[in-house]
Amino acid sequence: MTRTMVAILAAGIMSACGSGTTTCAIQTSCGVGPPRTTLTVFAAASLQPAFDKIGAKLLSTQNLATTFSYAGTQTLTTQLTQGAPADVFASADVAHMTTIHSAGLLYSQSVLFAHNRLEIAVAKGNPKGVHSLADLARSGLVVVLADPSVPAGKYAAQALAKAGVTVHPASLEQQVTGVLSKVALGEADAGIVYHSDIVSSGQVDGVVIPDTQNVIADYPIAVLMSAQNVAGAVAFVDFVLSTDGQSILTAAGFQGM
Amino acid sequence: MKRTRVPPAIGLLAALGLLLFLLPLAGLIVRAPWNQALRELADPTTTTALGLSIFCSLTATAIALVLGIPLAIILARTRGTLRNILRALTTLPMVLPPVVGGVALLLAFGRRGLVGSLLNQWFGIQIPFTTAAAVMAETFVAMPFLVIAVEAGLRSLDHRYEEAARSLGAGYWRVFTRVTLPLLRPAIFSGAVLCWARALGEFGATITFAGNFPGRTQTVPIAVYLALETKPEAAITLSLILLVVSVAILVGMRDRWLGAL
What pLDDT band is residue B256 in, cutting at 50, 70 and 90? Predict the structure, then answer.
C-alpha cells in the first residue's frame, strides 16, 4: 500500500519536473540532464522573429541554448515583479524597464539596443485603400489596436493623437502580435503595429506613417538579478549589441543603434 | 453495514489535493484590498465588465439549453460507433485549449471563415469583435457540460413513466413536456449551472474570437487579465467578485442538484 503511494508520488514529482522543457529551463531543481548552458530570455512579443534568429545563432556559435518567453511587455513585467525567474529582459519601451529597475530586479544597467517605427498593417494589396492614419477613422473600416496598457497600444494612441485622429477600434488586443494576426486573418481591415511586425509577417502590407505623426519605440535590454547564468546572459546582451546581432535586428525591420 | 477505515495515506493525499484548491483562494482573500474593494466595485470598468459577463454567460446558457437538450436526446438515442463519434464531437470543446477553440471559431465564422464569408457576402453580417461573438465563444466552450449532464440524466431515466403516458394516448410532445422534462429537471438544472459557471469563466476562446473592447466583448476574466498588469488591486477585486458569485451558486445548488450527478 505505502509502496504504491510512494510510487504514485514519485511519478507525480517526476512528471512535474519532466513536463515541458520550459519548466526545466527555468527551474534548476531538475538536476537531471546535460550541464546547464541554457538561458531564459523574457522578450517583448514584437522581438520574436529577430530573437529566434539570434537564439539559433548563439546555439550554433556559443553552444548557448536560449529559451524565450515572448509576451506583451506589460505581461512580462508583471511576471517578473511577481518573481518569475529569468536571465535577460528585453522590453518594448523604457517605462516597463524602469518599473523592473525600480523593483530592484536589474543585475546590470539597461541599454537601448533597437528602435522600431509604427506602421499601419493592411491586407495584401491594400484593398480598402488605407493611406494614412486619418483613413483609420473611416466608418465601416474594422480597425484593431493594441490595448493602451501594451507599449504598442500606448504608442499607437500617441501617434493617433499627434495626427488628431479619433479611431473607434473593434478590439484592443493584449499584445501587438494579436493586432497583426487579426489583420493577417482578414478579420480586421487595418491595425497599428511595428514596422518589424510587417517585415517579418509577410502576410500583410504596411502603410508608412510620416515622421511628424510617428512614434519611435525604444527597446532596452538588461541582465536580471534572478539570472542563473550571468555569463550566458551577458553574452546574449553583448551579441544583441554586436554588429552581427544588429544586422539580424535590421533585417527583421528594426532600426539599429 | 460497517464502514471500513480509510488508510492515512489517502487522507494525506486528499488533504494535499484540498490545499491545492484552498491556498490560491486564501492568497486571493488575504491579498485583497478590502478597503478599496467597494470603490473598485463602483468603477465603471468593473461594473461594465460584470454586466457584460452576466449577460453573455446567461445568454450562452439559454442557447445551450435550447440546442443542448435536443443534442442530448439524440445522443441518448444513438448506439455504437455513431454514438461514439457524436459524443467525441460534443465533448471536443472540453478538451480543446480554449484559444484553439477561438481560432477554430474565427476560421468558421470570421469574415473569411467557412460560414462567416457567406454571412458577410449575403447579409453583410460580421460576427468577430461583437457581443454575439463573445456569446458564441462561451456557448462553444460551455455547452458540452450541459449536454453531458442531460444525456446522463436521460440514460438513467425510468422510461416506464413515458411508456405509461404514451399508452394512455399522449403524443410525443405531450410526453416530452409533461413527463420527460420534469423527470429530467435535476439533470438539466445541474448541467445548466455547470455550463453557466464555465461560460462565466471563459477567457481564451472569447479573447481570440471576440477580441477585447470594454462594454462590447471585455468580460470579467479578460478585464482581470488586463487589469493585472496595470491595476492589480482591481484585478484581485474582480476575481473575488467572480469567486463569491461562483461559490454562492455552487454551495446553494450542490446539495439539491449536483448530488444527482
Answer: low
- Residue B23 covered by a domain: no
Of A27-36, A58-67, A108-117, B154-163, the one with minimum mean pLDDT is A27-36
B52 at A interface, C-beta within 8 A: no
**How far off is chain B from A239, nearest CA to CA, in Å?**
30
CATH of A116-216, one of 3.40.190.10, 3.20.20.210, 3.40.50.720, 3.40.50.450: 3.40.190.10
Domain ranges of chain A: 40-114+218-251, 116-216
Q: For residue B205, which of B112, B142, B111 has the smallest C-alpha distance?
A: B142
The per-residue pLDDT for range A148-190, each reduced to its tens digit, is 988 899 999 999 999 999 999 999 998 888 999 999 989 999 9
Confidence band of B27 (pLDDT split at 50, 70, 90)? confident
Task: For residue B112, list chain A residues with Cβ-Cβ distance below 8 A.
Answer: 185-187
Q: Do B211 and A173 touch (CB under 8 A)?
A: yes
How close B39 comes to chain A (CA, Å)? 21
Contact assessment for residue B157 and residue B180, using Cβ atoms and an 8 Å cutoff:
yes
Q: CA B172, CA B180: separation in Å to the nearest integer?
A: 10
ipTM given for this complex: 0.74
Cell numbers representing residue A190 in the block: 487595418
Q: Could you count the other beta carbons within 10 Å of the beta carbon of residue A95?
A: 15
pTM: 0.78
Under DSSP, the state recorded for A254 is -
List residues in chain A touching B: CB distance below 8 A.
1-2, 5, 72, 74-75, 77-78, 142, 144, 147, 149, 169-174, 182, 185-188
Query: A70 pLDDT exceeds 50?
Result: yes
d(CA B19, CA A17): 20
